[in-house]
Amino acid sequence: MKLIIAVIRTERVEATKEALRSAGIRGATFFHVTGRGRQRGRISTREMGETMNRNMRMQLTRATPPESVRVDTSLPPDMLLSSGFLPKRMLFLVVDDTDVSRIAQALVDANQTGCHGDGRIFICPMISAVRVRTGEQGDKALG
Hints:
Elements: E1 2-9, H1 13-22, E2 29-35, E3 42-44, H2 45-59, E4 80-82, E5 86-95, H3 100-111, E6 119-125
Antiparallel strand pairs: 1-5, 1-6, 2-5, 3-4
Helix pairs in contact: 1-3
C-alpha cells in the first residue's frame, strides 16, 4: 500500500475528480490548504483576476450569467503580487502498490498547466490500514 498526497490548484479539483473516476478510484479525501513553494506566494494579476472571476461565478446563484462577471484589477496583467500563502487543495489517496504509477500519471495529466504552482505529488509507504466498520486490515481495508 502507498499513500499518495497531492497538492493541486483549487481550479483543477473537478478535472482531478474526473481523472480519478476514470482511473477507477472510488474514494479520496480533499482538504483546503494554503502554502507556498518556489512561487514564494506570488501570483500575477492575470491569475488573480482569473481566480476572482472563478470564485465569483461559483457563488452566483441566478442573478448574473457567469460570462458577464469580470474583475478589473487595473494593474498590468503580468505584474507579480505577493500574497504570502496561496490557496491550494490537498488530496489524500491510499492505493495498492500496483496502481501507484497509473494514478500518479492521471494526477499529473489532470493538473499540469505548465505554470508555477501546478503542485506536487508525494508517494509514501503505508504500513497498514484498518476499516473501522468491519475491523478488516491491510489491503482488505481498501476495497
